[in-house]
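W.,

You were right to be curious about this one. When I first looked at the sequence I had no strong expectations either way, so I just let the prediction run and decided to look at it fresh. Below is the sequence, 560 residues in total, followed by the output.
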Amino acid sequence: MQKLIECVPNFSEGRDEKIIEQITDAIKSADGVSLLDVDPGATTNRTVVTLVGSPSAAVEGAFRGIKKAAELIDMRKHKGAHPRMGATDVCPFIPVSNVTWEEAIECANKLGKRVGEELAIPVYLYEKAAREKSRSNLAVIRGGEYEGFAEKIKKPEWKPDFGPAKLNEKAGATVIGAREFLVAYNVNLNTKSVRRANSVAFDVREQGRFKTEDGTPSGKKVLNAKGEPIREPGMLKHVKAIGWFVKEYGIAQVSMNLTNIEETPLHLAFDACVESAIKRGLRVTGSEIVGMLPKKCLTDAGRYFLRKQKWSEGVSEEELIDIAIRSMGLSELKPFDPREKVIELKIEGDSKSLLKMNLREFCNETLSDSPAPGGGSVAALMGALGASLGGMVANLSAGKRGWDDKLEYFSDWAVKAQKLKDELLFLVDEDTNAFNKVMDAFGLPKGSDEEKKARAAAIESATKYAAEIPLKVMETASRSYELLAEMADKGNPASVSDVGVGALSTRACVEGAALNVRINLGQLKDEKVKSDVSKKVEKLRADSEMNFKKVNQIVQTKIG
């Protein structure tokens, strides 16, 4: 599945539009980078840029932006309300989808190394990328700001992680790291009272409220042995919250920053506000997201609300997102368009994909005189259909009257089916992308000996990838047999024929993908790779045939 990481460089220029445009143009020039947001501030004299891409693309885009900022911004002349220490003040990486913390930290290190060595800018690593705990806090690193850093950097304890131990007078110093995704989230209340909204905010936020002798906000604070006020912690970890009145909407809100959406996800923050509001005689009427968020926030929320309904969670991502939007009232104040608010969907909207075609368009495109999409994409699609049929039977079984005690079992299988389907649909597009990489490699210049060598290497690499994708299709589709076997044996017997069609689709997928692996292997020169992959293909084919027969036998027996 596609790896996406967000990067949010903060540049010390918020007034000169031409400079800002040159920096963002440099970022956009990196292949595979999507620029999601540019937010300049005149008072702070600072621009926050949000870009997203694969880990390698994000590193390249960020480096180009930092390089251009170092050329155009002179920190000796910079003035602004926001604390800062460099032309690029801070540059965090934030995992969005299918990226581990190890990969995010690696991005920070790769970028830091390049900035330090190639641009001679001192670089400090912070948050999860910090090498020393004392440097994990951005505010501590930035203490003294640009004006005080020339002396600060001379101290042994402030030797940079990368680059020279001397302040770059023009570009200053830069902090690079990896941090959690922060979601700005507001919950709407049926009141205009800021005091009552604050009561809910204090209930839910991690910091809670001061403990008082009579339990009222205005009561005398209870002190500990050291004479310090005692706090009563709130319901949620990693949440900052306050109540405020929004004149534009005519309502009070609980305004929250969720600083760790893994441990305290969106839906738990929403339900905590609901619980607190009800206790105080209030109602939560909806909520709103400020900025953008990862798709996982909404799909997790969708599953959560389905669980509360005692219904199968094995529905499509689109349906999960719709359930989340409706359950949390995200469209109460203004329409919530996931294509604009969800990072992955925003990027997909800018890309060409076979998956955006309807069935007729896909068949027409396949039937045309273009070699792609071809057998590889069609094989992956057959695999996705096989997994979908298995998931359909799981969902039908989960909702079968009288089978309430089996809901969780079938729901879990339906969720697995959705994951398999999505992985195989991704490979429908990726097979065509792999073919295009091969064509691009053949189109490289071949004049000089050096060009010929580079072209040959590119063709070999692209052809190897073109064999790896259908191999991945085989491996992924083969995992559907376990699902199909369970559904044939234990699923709703009225749907056993659907399981049979799913097994046939899966078998056709594996065999079809094998043909595409073999035809690409024939073009490779690396004999070891050819031998190793060929063995994998034959093993997958043999296992597929064996598993198909097992499922088919159950199906045929039940049909009679």
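Here's what jumped out at me. The CA atoms of residues 93 and 178 lie 5 Å apart. And, maybe more interesting for your project: The first strand starts at residue 4 and ends at 7.

Coffee later to discuss?

I.
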